[in-house]
Amino acid sequence: MILTKLPIGLWVEFIVEWAQIHLEWLFDFITMVIKLLVSGIETIFLAVPPLIIIVLVFILVWFVANRGLAIGTAIGLFLIQNMQLWEASIETLALILASTALALVMGIPLGILTARSDFAHKLMMPLLDFMQTMPAFVYLIPAVLFFGLGQVPGLFATVIFAMPPTIRLTGLGIRQVPAELVEAADAFGSTEWQKLVRIQVPLALPTIMAGVNQCIMLSLSMVVIAAMIGAGGLGTEVLAGLSRIDIAKGFEGGLAIVIMAVILDRVTQSLTEKRKIKV
Predict the structure, then answer these.
(1) Closest CA to 54 of 72, 69, 74
(2) Would you tell me how many other CB atoms lie within 10 Å of the CB of residue 222?
């Protein structure tokens, strides 16, 4: 018995084409907002001399984490500057900061919703599984169709790829808050908003910060993939090295990505550990 193939791909293609025609105004608005956000971040960082940024980051990391990490951060940033990849690194950082901010703005409220509603939790989990297991390259297809080439589709694909851990860990953190504390708040007449803001979110913050950390790391992992559709940054350096079989160029671009990843990872981990100590 031969089963008829379901035209799932054609259905998705129809939805994408419909969205292109009827939601063009929305995509144009999103493009404008994202371009302003990313270009604004780039302009701010590029307007300041690299040496001043390195010194400021050194002080900030020392304050947030410790002296050893601050020294390692400064050495890593000096190395990026020495490899003449500072501007590309700023482009990548702007993309990461913008995509992480958008992922958190959407992901944390959705995570809170999944924690407070069993229906939302059951509905959201399969969708998150789908988002996390779908190959990252697949996200580039609708991103290019909706937004063309450049940083905007790269950021769009990055947000979709990096948002699931934020939703999962936010919901998990709030669900793990001891029921006794919530009941005590109820006994004192706290509203739902007061319980959320004063009890659940503060106690869940270490888990939420772990979600932020994963979000940043996944955003960085999309750097090279996003460069394939013109997102720029360090991914372009790696992609150029790959296409030209230029080992030196590819390695230097990859090393700069690793340096940024280690710095961001250690800083966010330090914030999480400090929060756990306070709690």
Answers:
(1) 74
(2) 25
Task: Give CATH for domain 24-278.
Answer: 1.10.3720.10
38-92 tens-digit pLDDT: 888 888 888 889 899 999 999 988 888 788 888 998 999 999 998 888 898 898 8
State residue 210 phi and psi, 5-degree precision.
-65, -35
Q: How would DSSP label each residue in 90-119?
A: HHHHHHHHHHHHHHHHHHHHHHHHHHH-HH
Alpha carbon 256 to its chain's center = 18
How many C-alpha atoms does 105 have within 13 Å on its Cβ side? Answer: 7
Instruction: Say yes or no to pLDDT of 274 above 80.
Output: no
Structure-token pair, residue 5? 């193939």
d(CA 36, CA 23): 20
Which of 248, 266, 246, 268 is closest to 258 using CA atoms? Answer: 266
Weakest-pLDDT range from 20-29, 214-223, 268-277: 268-277
Residue carrying the six token digits 């050194």: 58
DSSP 4: P
Domain boundaries, the chain: 24-278
